[in-house]
Amino acid sequence: MIINILAGGPEEQLPELKSYLENDVLWVGVDRGVYTLLSYGIEPKMAFGDFDSVNDEEMQFIHTKVKSLRIYKSEKDEPDMELALTWAVEQKPERIRLFGATGGRLDHFLANVQLLLRSLIEEWSSSIEIIDQQNLLYAVRPGTHQIKVDEQKKYISFLPIAGAVENLTLSGFKYPLKDRHIPATSTLCISNELIDECGTFSFTEGILLVIRSKD
C-alpha cells in the first residue's frame, strides 16, 4: 500500500496528481490540500488540519465530501502535516509520498525535511518521499544504494543532514567519489548526473538527503 498526502503548498508547485492514482493508493488531505484534492476529483480517505487556509464556503464543501475529518485548534504543538504523517505511519504502508510540502513558507518546508530525518532516526517502517513539480527528495541511512536514470529528473544531489557523512562513494556518476569525508556544511555533492543506466552510492556513517531535480 502507498499513502499519498497532499498539504496546502502552492498548486503551481504540484506535479500531475492523477499520475499517482495507482490502485493500492490511499489519499490524505492536509488543511487546504483537502480542498485541492476535491477540486481534482480525488476524495481523501482522511483529512487533517486546523483549516485556517480555507474560507467558510470551501469548508462547507469539505464537510459534504469527506467522511473522516480531524479538525484541530490552530494553537497546537504539531504542524498539520506531522499529524497526518503520524496517522499514515501507523497504517504501515510500504511508501508515503508528500505533495504540497514545498514552496510557500520556508519554515513549513524545512519542517517537512525534518520529518524525513525523523523517519530514519526513529526507524519508521515506511519509506517517505517529498515530491513537487521539479524535485523528488528522500533520506537514506548508511549502506549501499542503487539509483536509476530518470530522464525527467537528471540532476542528483546529496546533502548531509545529520552531521558529517563518512566514506561516501559514488559509482556510475559524472563526478565519482571514493571513500570521501563529507562535512556537515559541504556543498560538494550538488548537481551530479548519472552516466550509467544505474549508479550506486554508499557511505558508512551519517544520513544523506537525496534530491532528484529537473532542469
UniProtKB/TrEMBL annotation:
BP-aspect Gene Ontology terms: thiamine diphosphate biosynthetic process; thiamine metabolic process
Top-rank EC class of the record's enzyme: transferase
Protein name: Thiamine diphosphokinase
Alphabetized NCBIfam families for the sequence: thi_PPkinase (TIGR01378)
Record flagged with keyword Manganese: no
Key word Manganese present: no
PANTHER family, per the entry: THIAMINE PYROPHOSPHOKINASE
EC number of the protein: 2.7.6.2
All copies of domain Thiamin pyrophosphokinase thiamin-binding, residue ranges: 143-209
Single GO term (MF): thiamine binding
Keywords: ATP-binding, Kinase, Nucleotide-binding, Transferase
Lineage: Bacteria, Bacillati, Bacillota, Bacilli, Bacillales
